[in-house]
Amino acid sequence: MLGGKNSILPFKGLGIDVFPITNLEAAKEQLAKMAEEYGVIFITERIVEQLEAEIAIYDNALTPAIIPIPSSSGTLGIGMARLHKNVEQAIGMAILQED
């Protein structure tokens, strides 16, 4: 899990590897390292928003699956938007309803 300390530290208690990020350059480097080792990477939406180009590299790869999650300050809707896009791409039409 990659993101701000306050957002991801609670997941450490569940046995999830957490990588708190303090700046954008460190986030880019950590994402590249994690992509080599992990099949699934959870990233807070605030970091996803800032690393769009770097994350796009993995969009068509089998691994890692990059899953945006809300940060401790709330959701930006990025995770749901990516889910809608992926479902539409996979089946050729939008089947998920908007709230």
From TrEMBL:
<dbReference type="Pfam" id="PF01990">
    <property type="entry name" value="ATP-synt_F"/>
</dbReference>
<dbReference type="InterPro" id="IPR008218">
    <property type="entry name" value="ATPase_V1-cplx_f_g_su"/>
</dbReference>
<protein>
    <submittedName>
        <fullName>V-type Na(+)-transporting ATPase subunit G</fullName>
    </submittedName>
</protein>
<dbReference type="InterPro" id="IPR036906">
    <property type="entry name" value="ATPase_V1_fsu_sf"/>
</dbReference>
<dbReference type="GO" id="GO:0046961">
    <property type="term" value="F:proton-transporting ATPase activity, rotational mechanism"/>
</dbReference>
<keyword id="KW-0406">Ion transport</keyword>
<comment type="similarity">
    <text>Belongs to the V-ATPase F subunit family.</text>
</comment>
<keyword id="KW-0813">Transport</keyword>
